[in-house]
Amino acid sequence: MPRVERTVVLTNRMGLHARPSTQLATLANRFKAEITITKDDLTVDAKSVLELLMLAAECGSELQICGEGSDAKEAVHAIAELIESRFGELDVDR
User: Fold this and answer.
1) DSSP annotation of 13
2) What is this structure's pTM?
3) Average pLDDT value for residue range 34-53
């Protein structure tokens, strides 16, 4: 199975809190590929909101997205775009 990895930096001010975690898990569940997110030494299932919250990822955290499966390339790309778009959050302080 194809394996795709990409590293992104979390730039939204509040980090990976409940709403962005839900957005990310919802997006990940649209794909057949197995998708994981790693921060430091902790790897979690990107399709689980609770596991994503366990990362306690703050603004500036480096996240590694890994997908394995037939649509892994599309999944990793879509998730990276979501993270890089700051989950649609508008940071008025920037």
Assistant:
1) T
2) 0.92
3) 98
Virtual torsion, Cα 9, 13, 17, 22, nearest 10 deg: -70
**CATH, residue 44:** 3.30.1340.10
Q: Could you report how far apart the first and last alpha carbons of the chain are, in Å?
A: 41
Strands (E), 1-94: 3-9, 34-39, 42-45, 62-68
**Res 91: pLDDT:** 58
Looking at residue 15, what DSSP letter applies? -
User: Dihedral of CA 76/31/38/17: which sign?
Assistant: positive
> Is the backbone of residue 42 left (phi > 0), alpha (psi -120 to 50) or beta?
beta
Query: Where in the sequence numbering do the catalytic residues fall?
Result: 17
How many structural domains compose the chain? 1
CA distance 25 to 21: 6
